[in-house]
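Supplementary notes for students who missed Thursday's class. We covered one full example, reproduced here. Read the sequence, then the structure, then the short commentary at the end.
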Amino acid sequence: MNKFAIIGLGGKQFRVSEGDKIVAEKVAEKEGEAIKINHVFLVADGEDVKIGSPLVEGASVEAKVLGVKKGEKIRVFKMKARKRYRREKGHRQFEMELEIGKING
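Structure (token representation):
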């Protein structure tokens, strides 16, 4: 079994291994930028498992930003019945694609 970690990024949790690619909310600006994620909830390397309460002390995950793009459009629709009130809006959240590098901890 290879080394993996559970990290928190943008209000969501991801199970990542070295070399994985994930899509998360935008936290970095530039493509090619390296970021360090300190919100690590669990680190497992075979039989050696470290569980944080809530975070694992001294653990971090290094990742590289592959690209920043807009996600799928979400339709926001408001309506009041029998009042002729209707409003429609669209929203596209910025996302970034990350490649997981080294898992420290």
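Commentary. DSSP finds no helices and eight strands in the chain. The mean pLDDT is 94. If anything here is unclear, bring it to office hours.
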